[in-house]
Amino acid sequence: MKTEGEIPSIYFKTKKQQKMSKVKIGIPGWSTGPQSYGVSKTYLEYISTFGIPVILTPEIEVGDVEIDMLFLSGGPDLNPGLYGQKPSYFNGTGDLFRQWFYISRLQQYIESGIPIMGICLGMQMLAAHFGSRITQHLGNHPDSKNRWEKGHQVYVPVYTYGEELVYPQNFGMDVNSHHHQGVMLNDLSTDLLATQIFIHNRQNREIPQSEAVVEAFIHNNLPIFGVQWHPEEFYDEYTTSMVELFIDNIQNENGNFNKANASPREPFQRIVQEAQLV
Predict the structure, then answer these.
(1) CB distance 183 to 134 below 8 Å
(2) Can you give the residue range of the structural domain that contains 133?
(3) Cα gap 106→129, rounded to integer Å
(4) Distance of alpha carbon 141 from its chain centroid, rounded?
(5) How far apart are CA 190 and CA 131, in angstroms?
(6) What is the pLDDT of residues 12-41, one digit of tens each?
(7) Strand partners, 153
(8) Model-level pTM?
(9) Is residue 129 included in any domain, yes or no?
(10) How many domains are contained in the chain?
(11) Highest mean pLDDT: which of 55-64, 132-141, 228-237, 260-269?
(12) Which positions ≥6 away from 36 have C-beta within 8 Å?
């Protein structure tokens, strides 16, 4: 029986993940208490299944510390002034260090070509950076009772009628859910492609894109992807496969890494084909 606050024991390294143990994955730290700064254990445990976690402090310039992939964690709301929107009355207080990273480091890492993965807030940071509109309060979006429990299902979108309407495929994947902000499908940047969506009261019918919440996306040209759920607390094969395939793409025969080889579309297409979703 799992007790509240217990870290879920879902991290068992596969042979493939053991071979990836040399990859260095950077994660920006944040304020963890009045006198502490760092990263929560769940993120460190999750990242360590794929490689070596490297905590990025504000003093570290891009290129100072060699990393092969950037991991943007979840967290409290991002200041809407940073992405050109007025604040919602439901908007929460953000973390100073995460917001500083968004302003001062994110663009530099994107320009460096390094593969980037965003979770929850991290996904929203990437979405906002590329021009998506953030819905600052979703209102009735379902949440998991506990962080390691299912919140809802997500679906692969199929676009119809000039892409004004969307149809969720029959295959649904369970995810946890801990967010009150997000991006509606019609507000997603044209630089990004939605790969998973959530729809209230799902039926086998087409709906306007304005009713679909983006739950995962990839960038059209850059090695960047994001998920709205928390895979560090609730295992899902999609996120694991994306991380593994991103790393596969940048790892050569000698086990060394070359970020120039990273491709966002190939991993997603392979995952979809393997899951027989198309």
Answers:
(1) yes
(2) 15-274
(3) 9
(4) 18
(5) 8
(6) 455 455 555 578 999 999 999 999 999 999
(7) 174
(8) 0.83
(9) yes
(10) 1
(11) 55-64
(12) none
